[in-house]
């Protein structure tokens, strides 16, 4: 079924609520932690002088800890929610509904368990797909360089490459959606085989996905800029009021305001924008590959282009041999 992106969004609200809650808690903890670190950095500046690079070092460490914490949350807390969301979107695109009697998040988790066994298998496969697509994208762009003799073609290819690089952050989930499609069709094949075929289909149909990628890039950048400014100006104003009687604290509160705006923007982007763009990419991918079969000549070509794609294919062969034996 060809369901619009925003309808898929409204029909999978439970996943968004789950993400908002998790990212909200993480954002609150991150803001408190960064506030403490800014205070420590401010004290370091007062002790060693404003020219000291100690404050920068403290903040780099702080952001490193927050980034590491974010990756931990996304890997061990939210990953199964994300892939579960993919499974529900696939089911809605196929049948227009999911089986009754279960909540969406519970159904999504069950689908991940049934199709991958463990979330760790899904995570490893997802990373392999991501790297394979990155390598294939580089190859596609190199092929495009054959037309570099055309005036302005290099600039156009550069823009396309930049757009597809942003889309790359979401296309791996779109390819993973192909695994759920194959399983729902009753195909007796390993997830590795489905994933490798899904990558080939992406290479066959990337031009059809480009329009969605362009829209996604524009949407992401506009969201980031607008939301950051919406929060930055009021927070800067509040910081100025708080530091009006203590000029030395102006730097501290100003830094806190900008950091706060950045953290809020990042949390909202991860919680709301990322899943919407993922839905859009899945929908675009599924529409683009409809009625397509993986081209064997392209399959062979990709084996020589992407080492990670070759690993996917080798893994699928190993799985097939284990089942047959």
What does this entry look like structurally?
α1 crosses α9. The protein is built from eleven helices and no strands. By secondary structure, the chain is mainly α. The chain starts with a helix and ends with a helix. It has helices at residues 5-11, 13-48, 54-76, 79-95, 104-116, 119-144, 153-184, 191-242, 250-288, 296-305, 307-324.
Secondary-structure element pattern, one letter each: HHHHHHHHHHH
Main β-sheet description? none
Q: C-alpha Rg, in Å?
A: 23 Å
Uncertain ranges = none
How many β-strands, per DSSP? 0
Range of helix content: over 70%
Please indicate the percent range of residues in DSSP E strands (runs of 2 or more).
under 5%
By DSSP (H or I, 4+ residues per run), the number of helices equals 11
Provide the residue-averaged pLDDT: 84
Class per helix and strand makeup: mainly alpha
- Rounded to the nearest angstrom, the distance between the terminal CA atoms is 39 Å
Name the shape in a single word: elongated
What is the strand and helix layout of this fold?
Elements: H1 5-11, H2 13-48, H3 54-76, H4 79-95, H5 104-116, H6 119-144, H7 153-184, H8 191-242, H9 250-288, H10 296-305, H11 307-324
Keywords:
325 residues; mainly alpha; 84% helix
What's the short story on this structure?
With 325 residues, this protein is mostly helical. It contains 11 helices and no strands.
